[in-house]
UniProtKB/TrEMBL annotation:
Lineage summary: Bacteria, Bacillati, Actinomycetota, Actinomycetes, Kitasatosporales
PANTHER family linked to this entry: PUTATIVE PHOSPHOTRANSFERASE, TRNA 2'-PHOSPHOTRANSFERASE 1
InterPro entries linked to this entry: Ptrans_KptA/Tpt1 (IPR002745), RNA_2'-PTrans_C (IPR042081), RNA_2'-PTrans_KptA (IPR022928), RNA_2'-PTrans_N (IPR042080)
Enzyme class of the recorded protein, top EC level: transferase
Cytoplasm recorded as keyword: no
EC number assigned by the record: 2.7.1.-
Name of the coding gene: kptA
Function: Removes the 2'-phosphate from RNA via an intermediate in which the phosphate is ADP-ribosylated by NAD followed by a presumed transesterification to release the RNA and generate ADP-ribose 1''-2''-cyclic phosphate (APPR>P). May function as an ADP-ribosylase.
Gene3D superfamilies the UniProt entry points to: 3.20.170.30, RNA 2'-phosphotransferase, Tpt1/KptA family, N-terminal domain
Superkingdom field: Bacteria
Name of the protein: Probable RNA 2'-phosphotransferase
């Protein structure tokens, strides 16, 4: 499977497993899962044909491990804008986590902190390199350090998705460290 096809299938899966399942007639269960055969049939019925082997390739080779497979089911690991409960247990975060953004967002972040916006949670990275890649999608990245240890001690709940993305409802500004 060539890289262009891999990206195309991955984006299609993200769109329909995270944001618009109803667009192709899918109904995700309460935890975001859908039968793989149902997904493949729905996609084909809406003009986007891919095989089980292509889906498995995308799941196995996606650099961000965006998708999880459990037997005959698949779901997005996080990033949903549709209502799902990923049923992730609370986890103790490392002392610091990181968030990649761009300079034009810094004034609002300094005032309001990080909020989930259209998603269910704020996404944080365990390392600066991942946060840099995330921030670079929108322009020149700015990396914020999150005092996750202090947040956790103060009662904020953290969860970690199957692909290692740390999730929390929000990050108030007092827990953020800005560069420079």
């Amino acid at each position: 499977m060539d890289e262009r096809r891999t990206v195309r299938v991955s984006k299609y899966l993200s769109k329909h497993l995270r944001h618009q399942p109803e667009r192709i007639g899918l109904t995700l269960d309460a935890n975001g899962w859908v039968e793989i055969d149902t997904l493949i049939a729905a996609a084909a019925a809406h003009g986007f044909v891919f095989s089980r082997a292509e889906l498995e390739h995308v799941v196995a080779h996606n650099d961000k491990k965006r998708f999880a497979v459990d037997g005959r089911r698949i779901r997005a690991s996080q990033g949903h804008t549709v209502q799902v409960d990923l049923d992730l247990p609370p986890a103790t975060p490392p002392p610091y986590l990181y968030h990649g953004t761009v300079a034009r967002n810094l004034d609002a972040i300094r005032t309001h902190g990080l909020s989930a916006m259209a998603r269910h949670d704020v996404h944080l990275s365990a390392d600066r390199e991942t946060a840099t890649r995330v921030g670079a999608r929108r322009g020149r990245p700015v990396i914020l350090s999150v005092d996750a240890g202090a947040m956790h001690r103060d009662g904020h709940v953290f969860k970690v998705s199957a692909n290692g993305v740390w999730l929390t409802a929000s990050v108030p500004p007092q827990y953020l460290r800005f560069p420079g």
